[in-house]
Amino acid sequence: MNIGIFSGSFNPIHIGHLILANYIVEFTEIEEIWFLVSPHNPLKSEGELIDENIRLQMTEMALKEYKKVKTCDFEFSMPRPSYTIDTLNALQAKYPQHKFTLIIGGDNWNVFESWREYDKILENYNLKVYPRLGYRISIPSKLKDKVEALDSPIIEISSTFIREAIAEGKNVKAFLPDEVYEYILRNNLYKN
Q1: pTM
Q2: CATH fold for domain 2-154
């Protein structure tokens, strides 16, 4: 099976993530997407993340109605911080029957060469790059068979925006799956 790996902090997961995943599984050759909840992204400080198990639980809530989109806690048992190359290699070793494709945003594509062993990622895995406002996706011709720029909708909702809005007491119900929004309110998450 061709599995798309959509890795992130999902702090919290929001409808932008769901729209993108839905687009990819319906309009590309990717058959299933695994939302890989990262316990600690090496590019982010740990202090800005709420507990990984809470983020995983919210992701599970958001995805339960989607047959082709799953939650994945694979990195929870890996050394921290988790590096994408290590995760992809470990996934491929554990699930040799699957082909894994990394899904990243145009913002990450623009700094991809700063990722640990980015050349090994390009050598061994395909990438799908989704557009982000303000970021040009330029793919060198030598990578065209490995890297695809997606023509997916541009949804500019960020988890940072949602966290800040909740901290300010704003109603952001429309930006989150209902169950996730209710969970955040019930558990008083993202309040300063």
Answers
A1: 0.94
A2: Rossmann fold (3.40.50)
